[in-house]
């Protein structure tokens, strides 16, 4: 009989169950089992779910009247594994006869297998073979393939042929769609059949565009018309109308092509920003040293340049500056003579280097300095050990100090100049190409 049932009967009859050596002895039933005998009671939690041994179940049976905390303390003291609290309640109720069975009790137990093995050994040979086959079938029916993380991750078949076929199918569909769209586009753009026949079905418009340089419509030629008469042509036909001579035709074609080439050039406007510097020598920056300072960030006093023989240059000098916001360099024009500027050129004036004298702005198209510096950004350069000109203090200009001896500071001053100027152009003169 299963030890669990023997414990239930012993509790019902009040019989003693004791531990003698390595065996659990049932006095009333006169039976004994090894203390490590696997019972039919399995834990409800845990990965391995090994059945409780008879010693563990018997120890719970001995302390069934104690609280679970006291029971755990006794297990620790005796060195016996404990029954989980969720399993102990049902097992104690089973011992006391309150439950007929428990969820953790399984019908097939090690004890029954051992007893059946003993019975099979004492049974006839034919019966033993029959029982053995039956046991094998039962074992195979309950067999589960052992799997680990490595075995689950290992692919049984590494064949991705179906993916290749799917990609080919998608590519084929994509090509068919593109081909259908191109066919529809060609059909929609296809010209009407030439009434003169297929022998004249050539692209006259492309011929005139590539060889003459003008469109057919601009030349007044009808490619689908007949060779013959036109009321607007020069020359005389059989019915009195005039026809165009070959020389006149060639001349008109060339003239139309030249007109077409010249139109874009006339429409192009100069959008180069203009920076005005003082024309005299009463300012730190003038037409002599402005290009070197603004383009390279290197300040050279104009007195030194004059001593080197560079006494005069053109009234206009062009420099290039690479903006922080754009990679290609931007061309700027530096001038010192505003009398040569037209009304269109004044729209390109974006900055002026002030000398401090009011007469510098004589003849400028502004009623006063307030309107001037609202449209054109003013700058004033001075040595850092000198005072700012009193006239400059009343104007809205950017004052930039230059050191007499510390040339490594020149580059930062030039950067501040360009940063201020570019911000002004973007806000006040966005039409300039900056």
From TrEMBL:
Residues 3-194 form the Paf1 complex subunit Cdc73 N-terminal domain. GO terms for biological process: positive regulation of transcription elongation by RNA polymerase II; transcription elongation by RNA polymerase II. It is found in: Nucleus. This is Uncharacterized protein. One of its GO terms (molecular function) is RNA polymerase II complex binding. Residues 114-134, 173-199 are annotated as: Disordered. InterPro entries: Cdc73/Parafibromin, CDC73_C, CDC73_C_sf, Cdc73_N. One of its GO terms (cellular component) is Cdc73/Paf1 complex. Belongs to the CDC73 family. It comes from the Eukaryota. Keywords: Nucleus, Transcription. Residues 270-423 form the Cell division control protein 73 C-terminal domain. Its main location: nucleus.
């Amino acid at each position: 009989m299963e030890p669990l049932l023997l414990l239930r009967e012993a509790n019902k009859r009040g019989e003693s169950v004791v531990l003698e050596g390595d065996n659990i002895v049932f006095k009333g039933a006169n039976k004994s089992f090894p203390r490590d005998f696997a019972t039919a009671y399995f834990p409800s939690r845990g990965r391995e779910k090994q059945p409780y041994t008879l010693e563990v179940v018997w120890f719970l049976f001995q302390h069934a009247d104690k609280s679970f905390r006291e029971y755990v303390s006794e297990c620790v003291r005796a060195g016996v594994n404990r029954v989980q609290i969720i399993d102990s309640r049902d097992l104690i109720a089973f011992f006391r006869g309150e439950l007929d069975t428990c969820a953790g009790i399984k019908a097939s137990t090690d004890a029954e297998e051992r007893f059946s093995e003993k019975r099979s050994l004492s049974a006839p040979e034919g019966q033993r073979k029959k029982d053995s086959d039956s046991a094998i079938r039962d074992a195979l029916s309950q067999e589960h393939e052992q799997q680990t993380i490595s075995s689950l991750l290992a692919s049984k078949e590494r064949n991705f042929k179906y993916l290749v076929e799917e990609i080919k199918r998608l590519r084929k569909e994509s090509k068919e769609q593109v081909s259908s769209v191109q066919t529809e586009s060609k059909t929609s753009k296809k010209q009407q059949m030439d009434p003169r026949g297929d022998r004249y079905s050539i692209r006259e418009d492309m011929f005139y565009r590539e060889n003459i340089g003008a469109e057919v419509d601009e030349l007044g030629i009808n490619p689908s018309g007949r060779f013959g008469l036109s009321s607007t042509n020069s020359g005389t036909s059989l019915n009195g109308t005039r026809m165009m001579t070959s020389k006149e035709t060639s001349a008109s074609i060339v003239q139309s092509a030249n007109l077409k080439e010249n139109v874009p050039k006339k429409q192009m406007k100069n959008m180069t920003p203009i920076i005005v510097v003082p024309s005299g020598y009463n300012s730190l920056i003038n037409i002599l040293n402005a290009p070197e300072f603004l383009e390279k960030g290197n300040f050279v006093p104009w007195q030194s340049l004059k001593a080197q023989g560079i006494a005069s240059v053109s009234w206009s000098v062009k420099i290039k500056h690479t903006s922080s916001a754009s990679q290609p360099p931007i061309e700027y024009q530096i001038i010192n003579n505003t009398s040569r500027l037209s009304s269109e050129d004044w729209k390109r004036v974006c900055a002026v280097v002030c000398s401090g004298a009011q007469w510098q702005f004589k003849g400028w198209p502004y009623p006063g300095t307030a309107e001037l510096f609202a449209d054109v950004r003013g700058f004033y350069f001075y040595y850092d050990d000198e005072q700012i000109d009193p006239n400059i203090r009343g104007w809205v200009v950017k004052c930039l100090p230059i050191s007499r001896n510390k040339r490594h500071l020149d580059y930062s001053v030039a950067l501040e100049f360009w940063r201020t100027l570019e911000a002004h152009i973007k806000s006040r003169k966005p039409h300039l190409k900056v």
